[in-house]
Design a protein that fits this description.
Layout (H helix, E strand, L loop, with lengths): L1 E2 L8 E2 L10 E3 L1 H7 L1 E6 L7 E5 H12 L6
Antiparallel strand pairs: 1-5, 2-3, 3-4, 4-5
């Protein structure tokens, strides 16, 4: 689902970005207030935003941390 990024408050860059150009950002304050996690491409802050249910986002983050998506 695409949403208006200006309504999400402060964005945080992924700690997995390692300073590279392929980064995502999320808005934790919005997520805490609504249970919906907005995510965007840090290279296109005015572009589309995807939103995820907080439990789905948490499962994704757990998968990243445990290496489920390593090739």
């Amino acid at each position: 689902m695409a949403t208006n990024p200006s309504h999400h408050g402060t964005w945080r860059k992924s700690s997995y970005s390692n300073g590279g150009g392929n980064c995502i950002e999320w808005a934790p304050r919005h997520a805490a207030a609504t249970g919906v996690v907005p995510v965007r491409d840090s290279k296109d802050p005015h572009g589309p935003t995807l939103t995820f249910d907080a439990s789905a986002w948490a499962a994704f983050i757990d998968g990243v941390k445990t290496g489920d998506f390593n090739a």
